[in-house]
Amino acid sequence: MTAEIIDGKKIAEKIINDLKSKVKNLKEKPGLALVLVGNNPASEIYVNFKEKDSKEVGLYCERFNLDKDINEMDLLKLVNDLNQKTNIHGILVQLPLPKQIDANLIIDSILPHKDVDGFTPLNLGNLVSENTILAPATARAVLYLIESTGMEIKGKNAVVVGRSNTVGKPTAMMLLEKNATVTICHSKTKNLAEHTKKADILVVACGKPRLVTKDMVKQGSVVIDVGINREGGKLIGDVDFESVKEVAGYITPVPGGVGPMTRAMLLQNTLKAMELAKR
User: Fold this and answer.
1) How far apart are CA 183 and CA 58, in angstroms?
2) For residue 224, what are the β-bridge partners?
3) Are 142 and 171 in contact (CB under 8 A)?
4) What kind and span of H or E run contains 187?
5) Run of H or E residues at 43
6) Given the DSSP bridges, would you call strands 234-236 and 229-231 parallel, antiparallel or unpaired?
7) How many angstroms separate the Cα of 265 from the Cα of each of 115, 231, 260, 272?
8) 189-193 long-range contacts, Cβ below 8 Å, gap at least 24?
9) Structural domains in the chain?
10) Given CB 3.0 to 4.6 Å as the disulfide criterion, which of 38, 132, 230, 231 pairs with 68?
């Protein structure tokens, strides 16, 4: 048995084309602000992609490239200015930020209805209480990719490896909301394979290359690899793709899986943010 590859790039292209049609018919265009601090090569690539996608869909996009030595107060002032701009509906501050900046402080300063990443405490809290305003884009991407296989999430055993506030926890909450039985594993979990082998749905988002191998995966399961690691000039995931695809039913590749879908969900969130602003 060889797993069916979940083509995140192809699915994202369809979403982007649908968004393009919707935005084309709008009198007011959704506005997205992209804030990049410093010259982290990976962050620059991500922001470039987000800017390209935004313009392709027809969003109004403002990009701010800031010096790595910027102080916290100046960055807070910029975010506050963007909070007040009526033509900016979504604000994205690319992480990570330089050491002199408290990332939590910056993210917390974004108005919840402009927080298209879904990282503010209010948005995460609303996710837990099943009163979602804007859900984290990556967690939304994961759910979308699972549902694209046709698997019904209700009643399934789901294991999430990783407990970050940006991916692991919100993904677990969204799976729980879909009535899966959810287990969260992390770096301190003992005998990780005992948990992952029981998973009908396995989401891996821990930043450890090839952590999950063939012997850790249940036959016929859906495996979503959120990891992005650089090895020898190429990108690889947290799942050993070549071996795991021999036992999984469905699997996402890296690159070309969760990444393009996250960007598509970000654009959807920006459109939703504009709709929220009109209420």
Assistant:
1) 40
2) 203
3) yes
4) none
5) helix 41-57
6) antiparallel
7) 13, 27, 9, 10
8) 189/161, 192/161, 192/216
9) 26-111 (3.40.50.10860), 136-259 (3.40.50.720)
10) 38
Tokens 């943010």 appear where? 273
Q: Cα 255 to chain center, whole Å?
A: 14
Taking the C-alpha atoms of residue 40 and residue 7, their distance in angstroms, rounded to an integer, is 28
User: pLDDT of 180-236, one tens digit each?
Assistant: 999 999 989 999 999 999 999 999 999 999 999 999 999 999 999 999 998 888 999
- Of the listed 94, 115, 200, 272, which one is catalytic? 94
Contact call for residues 90 and 114 (beta carbons, < 8 A): yes
Structure-token match 């005998």, residue found: 191
Decide if 117 is catalytic.
yes
The interaxial angle of helices 168-177 and 121-128, nearest 10 deg, is 30
Whether 219 sits among the annotated catalytic residues: the reply is no
- Two tokens at 193? 């394979």
Q: Tokens 């009643």 belong to which residue?
A: 155
Catalytic residue among 117, 225, 238, 240: 117
Full DSSP string of 62-106: EEEEE-TT--HHHHHHHHHHHHH-TT--EEEEPSP--TTS-HHHH
Per-residue pLDDT reduced to its tens digit, 20-60: 999 999 999 999 999 999 998 889 999 999 999 999 999 99
268 is catalytic: no
**If you ran DSSP here, which 8-state letter would residue 214 be given?**
G
Point out which residues pair with 112 in neighbouring strands.
none
